[in-house]
Design goal:
The complex is a heterodimer of chains A (about 290) and B (about 270). Chain A is mainly α and about 290 residues long. Chain A contains 13 helices and two strands; from the N terminus they run H-E-E-H-H-H-H-H-H-H-H-H-H-H-H. Chain B is mostly helical. Classes of the chains: A mainly alpha (about 290), B mainly alpha (about 270). Chain B: Keywords: Cell membrane, Membrane, Transmembrane, Transmembrane helix, Transport.
């Protein structure tokens, strides 16, 4: 009796979320795809019109494009490596019995709550500034020449900042997974004479594998669209040395007003994200069934 | 013997963990320290003992009207979260309590909208905002932030609601509770903790969102993310003032974050890690 009624009620309750998300996803995406086949420049509207795939060709022949894809991937892969390996080590360390574990956790997780512009500015001026930064102070203390981080190693500097922001996230999630490991299993392995390393490889690591997958997938979503950190520190430079795909699209759209090219870049970003998303959804979907 | 080894082990672990933790926390700590220095002190080289002056804080407020941005941040993060909850609670509720064959697909699809890179829709959104006069308006940005976080809100609520046992509802019905009584006395008390932690996490996410909040605002609706980004220009470079502004921008959310560690794990992993 109730089922028919309940079902329509359920549909009614779900409708606002579904409709809102659908509109928010589809409408702008369709506009972007449409613009990617147009010549459109608000500052110079004379030549506007349909241009086929030439925006993609232009975007592709732009040397900045390959550089930006390379930078995007470098950033994602390096930060993933640092945060996952560092996160596992840190989680193992914090999981040991110690005094003040709660405070250690709070200190370690803190960078995650710092908004990206603040994180970038603090690193840029307080830590990495070639004259007044702490790194420069340390270099001078040892009689070395301070490094001009954003001039000489812009990508490395941005990788360090972004890794600092995401290491806490990886650590916290891996620590949570680690703490749910059955103590009896650990004891049994110890009784059987398993050393620290074999315990880690055969017991701890398999137990954490799902958490590691989740960390990689979620970080990848966010790392593919790093923006504020670049805007505030290097502004993509010197040249295009630290321009990633989101930043290039932003430059084309809102600074140069080459909307067609920017949209082509946006579509490429969507394709890139979808490849990642495909794997992400499968992994998260598996967890749902459990 | 065994005891002393344990104590030794514990001492080493404590020392190592504290050193690493302090290193990770150092940029934040040093910013807070520098915010209590004068401008001359701030550029005089490394020192962790400030003179304790509050002049930078006073100047940040006097020169740039810090509190306007702070107020915008509060309004946008809390407002967008409440909007998202209003839309998401019914959806999560129905998916948790009367799931259909398609529930899982809908959830996955909602999550997939989160994967769309913001830049891909930057210009269309910019156009829509410009043509509807929503650029630099608090309402427009609030809706924007609501949409960005809606998938996470639905997901988080869903994982919480799913843990409410259905048998309790049946028992209440057997005892003759009306639908209204059921909602008020049985379901709400059990749902409130989940809703509260969803709210907390989403306020944090909205507070720190740094793409749309920078690009879609100029002055009126600009929150702290936009305010801080304006310090990146060379003429804005005063170390102590920058530190004071940064400290003010992160302090409230840092403290909230400390209380929400558990929910953070759960919310950001979509319930996969608890």
């Amino acid at each position: 009796m109730a089922t028919q009624q309940t079902r329509s009620l359920a549909r009614f309750m779900m409708a606002p979320s579904v409709v809102l998300l659908f509109v928010w996803m589809i409408v702008p995406l369709v506009i972007t795809i449409w613009f990617s086949f147009q010549q459109y420049n608000p500052l110079n509207p004379i030549r506007d019109g349909f241009v086929g795939f030439s925006n993609y060709a232009l975007f592709y022949s732009n040397p900045a494009f390959l550089q930006s894809i390379l930078n995007t991937l470098t950033l994602v892969v390096s930060v993933l490596l640092i945060t996952v390996i560092g996160g596992i080590l840190l989680a193992l360390l914090i999981d040991q019995p110690m005094w003040g574990q709660g405070i250690v956790r709070i200190l370690v997780i803190s960078p995650f709550f710092v908004m990206p512009p603040v994180a970038a500015l603090v690193w840029k001026n307080m830590i990495m500034h070639p004259q007044y930064g702490v790194f420069a102070d340390i270099a001078r203390f040892f009689g070395a020449q301070p490094i001009d981080w954003f001039g000489q190693h812009p990508m490395l500097a941005i990788i360090i900042i972004v890794a600092w922001q995401w290491l806490p996230f990886a650590t916290l999630i891996l620590l949570t997974a680690l703490q749910s490991l059955d103590g009896e299993q650990k004891e049994a392995a110890e009784m059987d004479g398993a050393g620290f390393i074999s315990r880690f490889i055969y017991l701890t690591l398999p137990h954490m594998s799902r958490a590691i997958t989740v960390v990689i997938l979620i970080q990848t979503i966010f790392l593919l669209s790093v923006y504020a950190e670049i805007l505030v520190t290097t502004n993509g430079g010197p040249g295009y040395a630290s321009t990633n795909l989101p930043f290039l699209v932003y430059q084309k759209a809102l600074l140069e007003f080459k909307i067609g090219q920017a949209s082509a870049g946006g579509v490429i970003a969507v394709i890139l994200a979808n490849i990642v998303a495909f794997f992400a959804m499968r992994a998260v979907g598996k967890n749902l069934d459990k | 013997m065994a005891r002393s080894v344990t104590t030794q082990h514990k001492t080493i672990a404590t020392a190592a963990a504290w050193i690493v933790a302090l290193l990770i926390f150092f940029p934040i700590l040093y910013t807070i320290i520098t915010s209590f220095k004068s401008e001359q002190e701030a550029i005089q080289g490394f020192s962790i003992i400030p003179s304790g002056t509050m002049e930078s804080y006073a100047e940040v407020q006097a020169q740039s009207g810090y509190f306007k941005f702070f107020f915008n941040s509060v309004l946008l993060s809390v407002g967008s979260t409440i909007l998202a909850l209003l839309v998401a609670i019914p959806a999560a509720w129905s998916m948790a309590f009367s799931p259909t064959k398609r529930t899982k697909d809908i959830l996955m699809w909602m999550l997939s909208t989160k994967m769309m890179p913001a830049v891909a829709v930057l210009f269309p959104i910019y156009l829509i905002f410009r043509d509807t006069g929503l650029l630099d308006s608090r309402i427009g940005l609030m809706v924007m932030l609501m949409l960005i976080n809606l998938p996470i809100v639905v997901w988080m609520l869903y994982t919480y609601f799913r843990e409410i046992p259905g048998e309790i509802l049946e028992a209440a019905r057997m005892d003759g509770a009306s639908l209204w009584n059921e909602i008020v006395y049985v379901l709400t008390p059990m749902a409130v903790p989940g809703i509260a932690s969803t709210m907390l996490l989403n306020i944090i996410l909205a507070w720190n969102e740094a793409f749309w909040t920078i690009r879609l605002t100029t002055t009126e609706a600009a929150p702290l993310t936009a305010f801080i980004s304006s310090f990146s220009s060379p003429q804005g470079l005063f170390w102590a003032k920058l530190s004071a502004a940064s400290t003010l921008a992160i302090a409230p959310i840092l403290i909230m974050g400390w209380f929400s560690q558990k929910q953070l794990v759960r919310g950001l992993t979509f319930g996969a890690v608890k």
